[in-house]
Amino acid sequence: MELKYKAHLLFPTCIHIFEYKNFESIKDELIQHVYEEKNRDPKGRKVSNRGGWQSQDFVKDDKILSLIGKIFCELPILNKEISFSLDCWFNVNKKGSYNTKHVHANSDFSGVLWLKAPINSGDIVFDSPHHFSSYMERLSYTEKFKNDTGCTDRYSFNPIEGKMLLFPSSLEHEVQPNESDEDRISVSFNIKLLAKS
Q1: Computed over its alpha carbons, how large is the radius of gyration of the chain?
Q2: Which positions ≥6 away from 107 have C-beta within 8 Å?
Q3: Residue 163 burial by Cβ neighbours in a 10 Å radius (0-12, 13-18, 19+)
Q4: Per-residue pLDDT reduced to its tens digit, 125-178
Q5: Which residues pair with 102 in a beta bridge?
Q6: Among 3, 50, 87, 135, which has the highest number of CB atoms less than 10 A from its own CB?
């Protein structure tokens, strides 16, 4: 039997990926800024982090907050009738530390920007939002089809310095343990969308 076939992806979960082109020129300054904040508040806070340090949220007057806000504003896919509020926090994950599975409640987009990411410092892993409802459907597909379409149970992103991910806040994710001997340093953030009046 002769068949014509194509898969049309419908209702996708969008992960937006950015790479800061001249990251090396600002990397050291940003890392130093994170360590200065850590020295100011060495206790930090515990949320999903296990073994690492996490800063309190900050919502204004920070160079990294400004950088993330500028990147988000310049997205060519954004409806210009939408404004937003943004809050960020720093993460310093030493060897063995990780983040348990979680979502970011009370926001629309969340993201991470990696400032320092040694080899084997822990991938960010996303779970399918359909892991229960479409289990048998995914089981029926070949590995090639799953890989080509992203129709998988889980998907990992390797941290890369200067790379930023933006994803729906409702998407479950975790960060695997840092197996390197150096700190992994990142900035996490939440974006709340607001309709312009």
Answers
A1: 18
A2: 169, 190, 191, 192
A3: middle
A4: 999 988 888 888 888 999 999 888 888 889 999 999 999 999 999 999 999 999
A5: 173
A6: 87
